[in-house]
Design goal:
binds ligand V47, alpha/beta, three-stranded parallel β-sheet, 2 domains, binds iron/sulfur cluster, single chain, TIM Barrel
Length: about 375
């Protein structure tokens, strides 16, 4: 079949839905126009999965073509001791009960980096609990030493929650804190700690850590200091669709201002071993709809990432047909956040060959990237 005709047929199909509002939204998306918050809510409330997937795929193809990205990375989680008590967290331990958690010394952290000598990884992702004794100076020193061991490695480290606590304790402004960490070797910051920005819901699930306003200010300041970042959204718990739209809206507004976000990562709430065990997890169908809607709505985000250790490799593969263009990296069994919350992947490790095969099987072109999405190697489809 002539592909032009097939594409025209598909667009025709999308825009002849019997729901006039959905039709108007599809027309806008196909024409490359931005959809409003109200329209995004309509997609959540009335968009059928196949319709959303097809629309998201049009946006995905426009922005990223047929490419699907991955990288070679590992995580270091210096501690799971945390001064905060987010209800969804299965991972943290209080300082009082720290003997039941872990606290890595600087040498133990550096040994983890040395274990990759000669292995072509490009990124280390360092995040953990907010430990009352591991301060700005300690972490500055740690990342300086990581860079001495591996000058080539990109250090993506510390969520806005960890940074907010560290900077305050050190009596530094956000800008001073970032300039110091940058001078030590920090390259970018991950997207954690965003959860859900709606103040009422945030208060219900993680009342004591940094506010939505603070999270957004920390990322805005990072961008102004030349430090790019990611953004996440924890979904599928006690929030409703309007809260998700509000969350993504605040991110879209900030991205318009700074263009400093690399990627958006929806994080599915997992309910094992935490104070929200009574809250059911959402279905895989809902995960796919959510990926698709975020791709359609966040027109100023270049990338949408499915974090495979959290949703499992099969779902990550499927998500590539629902707007996702990045499935994170090799990980090498170096993170506990999701395995402790009941994710399918209890020892998350994928080789580059496995990642490439997964992507090819989904009909996409595998591209190994660095953290900033520069191409390291493009594989055949
Ligand atoms: O902020 C904690 C989430 C986040 C649970 O930037 C949970 O590349 C689901 O942000 N169910 C930290 N989610 C991890 C994170 C991340 C992960 C991978 C890549 C990147 C990146 C960032 O994990 C927390 C919280 O939203 N989380 N507990 C749970 N039970
Ligand atoms: Fe601490 Fe992060 Fe867990 Fe919240 S999600 S309790 S800040 S480790």
């Amino acid at each position: 079949m002539n592909t032009r005709t097939a594409a025209t047929d598909l667009i025709e199909h999308l825009t002849t839905t019997s729901d006039p509002q959905l039709k108007a939204i599809a027309d806008k998306v196909v024409a490359g126009e931005r959809i409003s918050n109200e329209e995004c809510l309509v997609l959540y409330e009335r968009g059928e999965t196949g319709f959303l997937g097809s629309l998201a795929n049009i946006v995905r193809q426009r922005i990223n073509g047929n490419k699907a990205y991955f990288n070679r990375n590992f995580h270091i989680e210096p501690t799971n001791v945390c001064v905060f008590s987010c209800k969804f967290c299965s991972y943290s331990r209080s300082y009082k009960h720290r003997e039941t958690g872990w606290e890595l010394t600087k040498d133990e952290i550096l040994d983890k980096v040395r274990a990759y000598d000669g292995i072509p990884i490009t990124e280390v992702h360092i995040v953990g609990g907010v430990h009352p004794k591991m301060d700005l100076e300690y972490f500055g020193d740690v990342i300086k030493s990581v860079k001495e061991i591996r000058p080539d490695i990109h250090i993506k480290a510390f969520t806005a929650v960890e940074l907010d606590y560290m900077f305050r304790k050190a009596g530094k402004s956000i800008e001073e804190g970032f300039m110091y960490l940058k001078s030590c070797g920090l390259n970018s910051i991950p997207g954690g700690g965003a959860e859900i920005f709606d103040e009422e819901i945030r208060n219900e699930i993680c009342a004591d850590k940094c506010s939505s306003e603070e999270w957004l200010l920390i990322h805005e300041t990072a961008h102004r200091c030349g430090i790019p970042s990611n953004a996440t959204m924890l979904y599928g718990h006690v929030e409703n669709y309007s809260h998700r739209v509000d969350h993504m809206s605040r991110l879209r507004v900030l991205q318009d201002k700074t263009n400093g976000f690399n990627t958006f990562i929806p994080l599915k709430f997992r309910n094992s071993d935490n104070e929200m065990e009574h809250v059911n997890e959402v279905s895989m169908n809902e995960d796919l709809r959510n990926y698709a809607i975020s791709r359609i709505y966040l027109d100023n985000f270049q990338h949408i990432k499915a974090y495979w250790p959290m949703i499992g490799r099969q779902m990550a593969q499927l998500s590539l047909s629902f707007g996702v263009d990045d499935i994170d990296g090799t990980i090498d069994d170096s993170t506990r956040i999701y395995s402790m919350a009941g994710a399918e992947e209890q020892n998350p490790t994928l080789t580059t060959e496995q990642l490439v095969d997964m992507i090819r099987e989904a009909g996409k072109v595998p591209v190994e990237r660095d953290t900033l999405y520069n191409t390291i190697e493009e594989y055949s489809a």
